[in-house]
């Protein structure tokens, strides 16, 4: 998210299936045809070039359904053949339908277009700068960024002191000069009009996220003096591999899947994915769920943004249990800006305004109440030199572009997200509707209304961390028994690297060029978690993605949302990321491919589909439901997940059981953990056994948590936590029970 607070996963409109698949042919769209695992017989599978057996098979399959005289070569845009099996092709609806019924096809779905959804933030998390001697350890870790590209000349991406890339690295650099920091870079534009593209970041977003993950420490960074300090990523010693899957219009599923296909085969360790939609899709009609599943099979964790549709009634996206879903919260630094009215009244708002002070400028309310460029420019009244007051307008982007074009001195805009400071293209501030009304009352009361706007000031937010207004909340609409988002990380007013090809306000008429910019979104929270995952991976090369996720989730710090206890756990999951603790979690909840497959079986995916996805015909769905809670198994609650969630019928008493197994990853060979329940009064949480004894490292011990309670109202949420404590570690799992509302059901049908 950048300029339009709370819109969808990043900015602008939501993704509509095929809305800009752009084939130029009526009724023909770009579809993804997903075929599951790669046949192991294909010797070429991991070769980037060449026409392999897998491609022949794709062409053969497609040719079987084409009857308009065209051939598969005219239609296939890309074969996915390095890490997963499938292709993107231009198809009619009828052709897509035919394909979906064919042998060997898991799913066929239109390629949607998604949106790409410092420094201080790490200090706020209590995460120290990496000492020199540990940089080398990080040098073996490679993070794949699926984003808008990168601006390589930023000092954050200097490779000073770096050795050559790890020898296992198979990635390449296309139309881009790599160094020993950025060791791979490619760009994809399968559904776009131009075949030429470069991994250079023309949006800023990709440079921002990449530097948050692995930027070198750069001293004396600021945005025109604001947020001054040392900018750094979580793992400054780690390598970056750039997969530019977002072009100007957005990020197509076809490009996203290409990015995953390459990143996994190239040998990345962690994938950072700050892209999403306003609500999740079914797992095998969702490029990122498919891509991250194949990543998980190869031991690669995908960390993703939870979405920015919290103010629009949307729900958390990127919910697959094999990926980490990251919510956004505030840090202790806040930016405020003030207007002093002619009557002496001071009104505070938020914005990043580093322009010179404007003194006693006339306040002007637009004649027709609209700040659209058409209303402000070319009329009889001139807004030149005035401060324009912009009321909210349904469906209009109130971003100051109208006042800027009209030559206004400044602007006052209404915001729904007063917790976020946006960078405006001219002096101004964003205020709540209440404050806007106060300004209007003053304007109406005098014949000569004036105001003075000063530069933005920095203050301390003593309540932080608080979940960001725009951060998409749960419940998880796809698998109700898996708590999403998983955890929260800083995503409000974060300073990090930027691209000079994009203005800091995103407005092309804003001529400023900056190396570092302050922006907000779950897009900014995600790379904090990706970086923390890379940090954990640098200590534990052999940990599975589930072990790393567990380490991050069980060591997160619980957060309070003052005065809003209902929203809390569904908004931020386990709490705020704590990278320092995460590298030594004591116990982890592990899960491997077979565990996810059992969950998918229980959730109703067919044995035939799952056999294609896993490439194993021993996948036996019938046996998966071995626990005492069959309903829970179908909803995902049986998966060995580090949190426990259940959706229950409203107005009925309930009992749910969560079978779990923990693995001892602490240093001590013999260790005892005792359970502690932090329960809300309204839940009864019974843990059995209450003591776990380990005599060896990597030993696994199982237990069951039984949660019961009396009837809840629709929409009510209750939470508690199960904490396993030893002398050295605390392993905390939130427990969340919620009563579904009709809204959830509606949303689920839409999803
Ligand atoms: C290489 O990148 C430049 C922009 O840096 C772009 O204009 C050009 O089209 C790209 N070339 C190819 C072959 O993709
Ligand atoms: C940071 O900037 C200040 C003022 O411009 C300067 O005095 C100081 O030496 C700089 N520090 C570093 C480490 O460059
Ligand atoms: C702005 O206007 C106020 C009220 O009329 C006046 O007190 C103040 O001195 C003016 N400021 C400047 C810098 O002219
Ligand atoms: C930038 O300015 C040009 C003309 O000066 C105008 O046509 C265009 O709409 C402006 N762009 C934005 C985003 O305001
Ligand atoms: C101020 O006047 C405008 C129209 O001139 C009106 O729409 C608005 O309700 C008034 N606001 C206040 C707070 O008085
Ligand atoms: C599993 O698949 C392989 C190859 O497709 C086949 O040879 C084998 O007979 C199958 N096994 C079973 C139990 O169906
Ligand atoms: C499923 O159950 C059958 C019979 O109970 C058993 O033979 C088989 O091994 C089981 N399969 C799995 C994958 O557990
Ligand atoms: C739910 O539990 C409460 C407390 O145990 C009990 O009083 C009530 O009758 C139960 N309601 C139903 C519908 O079983
Ligand atoms: C939580 O939600 C329920 C149902 O909507 C409502 O009755 C209750 O008052 C809410 N509690 C709080 C603290 O907001």
Furnish the topology, listing elements before pairings.
Blueprint: E1 28-36, H1 53-63, H2 72-75, E2 76-80, E3 85-92, H3 93-100, E4 107-110, E5 113-116, H4 120-124, H5 132-138, E6 142-147, E7 182-187, H6 205-214, E8 218-223, E9 226-231, E10 239-244, E11 246-247, E12 250-252, H7 253-266, E13 270-273, E14 275-276, H8 287-297, E15 301-305, E16 323-329, E17 333-341, E18 346-349, E19 358-364, H9 373-376, E20 387-390, H10 401-405, E21 410-414, E22 428-431, H11 433-445, E23 450-453, E24 457-460, E25 487-490, E26 494-497, E27 516-519, H12 522-539, H13 545-554, H14 568-572, H15 579-582, E28 587-588, H16 593-602, H17 607-614, H18 630-634, E29 644-648, E30 654-664, E31 671-679, E32 684-688, E33 691-694, E34 700-709, E35 717-725, E36 730-739, H19 742-750
Parallel strand pairs: 6-10, 6-13, 7-10, 13-15, 15-16, 16-25, 19-20, 20-21, 21-22, 29-36
Antiparallel strand pairs: 1-3, 1-4, 2-3, 5-12, 5-14, 8-9, 11-12, 17-18, 17-23, 17-24, 19-23, 26-27, 28-30, 30-34, 31-33, 31-35, 32-34, 35-36
Helix pairs in contact: 6-12, 7-8, 12-13
This protein binds 2-acetamido-2-deoxy-beta-D-glucopyranose (9 copies).
One 2-acetamido-2-deoxy-beta-D-glucopyranose is lined by residues 219-220.
Bound molecules: 2-acetamido-2-deoxy-beta-D-glucopyranose
Please give the number of β-strands: 36
Q: How large, in whole angstroms, is the Cα Rg?
A: 26 Å
Low-confidence segments:
1-26, 624-628
Structural class: alpha/beta
Distance between the termini: 21 Å
- The shape, in one word, is globular
CATH architecture of the largest domain: 3-Layer(aba) Sandwich
CATH topology of the largest domain: Rossmann fold
Average residue-wise pLDDT: 88
Q: Supply the CATH class of the largest domain.
A: Alpha Beta
CATH homologous superfamily designation of the largest domain? Peptidase S8/S53 domain
Helical residue percent band: 10-25%
């Amino acid at each position: 998210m950048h300029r339009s607070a709370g819109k969808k996963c990043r900015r602008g409109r939501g993704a509509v299936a095929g809305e800009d698949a752009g084939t130029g042919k009526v009724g023909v769209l770009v579809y993804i045809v997903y075929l599951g695992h790669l046949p192991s017989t294909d010797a070429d599978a991991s070769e980037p070039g060449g026409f392999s057996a897998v491609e022949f098979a794709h062409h053969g399959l497609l040719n079987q359904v084409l009857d308009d005289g065209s051939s598969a070569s005219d239609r296939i845009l890309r074969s996915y053949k390095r890490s997963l099996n499938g292709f993107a092709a231009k198809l009619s609806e009828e052709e897509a339908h035919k394909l979906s019924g064919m042998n060997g096809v898991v799913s066929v779905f239109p390629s949607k277009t998604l949106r790409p959804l410092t420094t201080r933030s790490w200090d706020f998390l209590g995460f120290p700068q990496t000492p020199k001697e540990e940089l080398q350890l990080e040098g073996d870790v490679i993070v794949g960024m699926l984003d808008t590209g990168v601006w390589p000349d930023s000092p954050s991406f200097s490779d000073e002191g770096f050795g050559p890339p790890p020898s296992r690295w198979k990635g390449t650099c296309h139309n881009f000069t790599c160094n020993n920091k950025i060791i791979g870079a490619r760009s994809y534009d399968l559904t776009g009009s131009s075949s030429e593209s470069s991994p250079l970041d023309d949006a800023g977003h990709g440079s921002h996220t990449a530097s948050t993950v692995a930027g070198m420490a750069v001293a004396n960074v600021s945005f025109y003096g604001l947020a001054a300090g040392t900018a750094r990523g979580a793992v400054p010693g780690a390598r970056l591999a750039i997969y530019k899957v977002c072009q100007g219009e957005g990020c197509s599923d076809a490009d996203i899947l290409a990015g995953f296909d390459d990143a996994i085969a190239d040998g990345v360790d962690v994938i950072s994915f700050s892209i999403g939609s306003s609500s999740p899709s079914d797992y095998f009609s969702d490029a990122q769920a498919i891509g991250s599943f194949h990543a998980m099979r190869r031991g690669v964790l995908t960390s993703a943004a939870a979405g920015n549709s919290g103010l629009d009634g949307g729900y958390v996206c990127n919910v697959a249990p094999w990926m980490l879903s990251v919510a956004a919260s505030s840090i202790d630094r806040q930016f405020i800006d003030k207007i002093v009215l002619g009557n002496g009244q001071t009104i505070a708002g938020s914005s990043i305004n580093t322009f010179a002070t404007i003194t006693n400028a006339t306040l002007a309310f637009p004649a027709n109440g609209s700040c659209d460029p058409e209303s402000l420019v070319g009329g009889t009244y001139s807004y030149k030199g005035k401060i324009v007051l912009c009321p909210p307008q349904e469906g209009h982007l109130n971003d100051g572009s109208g006042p800027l074009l009209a030559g206004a001195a400044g602007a006052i805009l209404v915001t729904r997200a007063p917790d976020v400071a946006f960078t405006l293209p001219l002096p101004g501030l964003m205020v709540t509707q209440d404050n806007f009304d106060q300004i209007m009352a003053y304007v109406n009361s005098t014949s000569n209304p004036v105001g003075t706007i000063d530069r933005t000031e920095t203050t301390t937010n003593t309540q932080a961390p608080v979940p960001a207004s725009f951060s998409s909340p749960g419940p998880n609409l796809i698998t109700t028994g898996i708590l999403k988002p998983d955890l929260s990380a800083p995503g409000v007013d974060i300073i990090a690297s930027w691209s000079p090809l994009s203005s800091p306000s995103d407005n092309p008429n804003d001529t400023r060029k900056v190396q570092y910019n302050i922006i907000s979104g779950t897009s900014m929270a995600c790379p904090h978690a990706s970086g923390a995952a890379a940090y954990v991976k640098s200590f534990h090369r052999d940990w599975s993605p589930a072990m790393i996720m567990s380490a991050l989730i069980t060591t997160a710090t619980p957060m309070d949302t003052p005065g809003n206890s209902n929203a809390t756990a569904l908004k931020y999951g386990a709490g705020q990321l704590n990278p320092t603790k995460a590298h030594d979690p004591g116990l982890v909840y592990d899960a491997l491919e077979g565990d996810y497959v059992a969950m998918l079986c229980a959730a109703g995916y067919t044995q035939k589909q799952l056999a294609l996805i896993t490439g194993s015909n021993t996948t036996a769905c019938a046996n998966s439901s071995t626990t005492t809670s069959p309903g829970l198994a179908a909803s995902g609650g049986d998966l060995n997940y580090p949190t426990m969630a259940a959706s229950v019928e409203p107005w009925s008493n309930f009992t749910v059981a969560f079978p779990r197994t923990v693995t001892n990853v602490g240093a001590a060979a013999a260790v005892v953990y005792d359970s502690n329940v932090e329960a809300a009064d309204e839940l009864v949480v019974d843990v059995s056994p209450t003591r776990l004894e380990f005599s060896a490292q990597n030993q696994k011990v199982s237990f069951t948590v039984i949660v019961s309670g009396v009837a809840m109202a629709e929409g009510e949420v209750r939470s508690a936590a199960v904490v396993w404590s030893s002398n050295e570690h605390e392993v905390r799992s939130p427990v969340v029970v919620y009563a579904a509302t009709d809204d959830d059901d509606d949303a689920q049908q839409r999803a």
